[in-house]
Amino acid sequence: MNKIIEKIIENIIKFFKYKYKYYFLNKIKQNSEVIVENGIKKRVYLGGFENYLTHQKKKFDLYKNTLNRDFENQVNYFYLLFKNIKLTNSNRIYSLCLGARTGAEVKAFRKLNFFSIGVDINYPKNSPYVVYGDFHKLDFPDNSFDIIYSNCIDHCFDLKVFLSESKRLCNEDGIILFHIQKGSEDGSRDNFGDFEALGWKDANLIIKQIENEGLKKLSQKSINKDYIEVIFKK
Known about the structure:
- The chain is of the alpha/beta class.
- It contains six helices and ten strands; from the N terminus they run H-E-E-H-H-E-H-E-E-E-H-E-E-H-E-E.
- The strands form two sheets. Strands 5-4-3-6-7-10-9 form a seven-stranded mixed sheet, with helices on both faces. Strands 1-2-8 form a three-stranded antiparallel sheet.
- Helix 3 (71-82) crosses helix 4.
């Protein structure tokens, strides 16, 4: 009987979380609009940057149980992706992960003997891997890191500012490593979902924009059905 009651309570909680999620997302839709420029969708927050922060923080709150449950699997996934990265200067191995959430990518870098830290605007309490930071403006000194990593370009409020900050923090011998979602026409799904601030029909459109901001592309390859790995140098 206790198990039946527990199951009923679990389903009630799921129901209200589901209702809250869609209530929240509908409020965001009412307070934002989507524009399209050169094949790239952008969510314009009518309340400005504060509305953007509220929107982006909520994703972790809604999915943190799943993210925490999958943490070690994600660490292994990132480890396999990162282990073949080569740096010009192998004596310095500092990495910064932008939009790191639970910090799985940070732990993967540490397993590869990097000194690594992640930043995000919402993350697990007392995380050993992630500290608070807005990737549009960070307090680290110029040229602090050998690798700047992110898979969160689609969550940028201002792509130009995000890229400028990535360049500022990366040293001259370092690399900027992005895992970029494939677009609605070259991937398995539409990448402009409930929480994305940017979306594109073809990943090459956003890669071209990145190059236009002064980053030199060193390599590009598909890593799975949804993501492309692109390495840049400033």
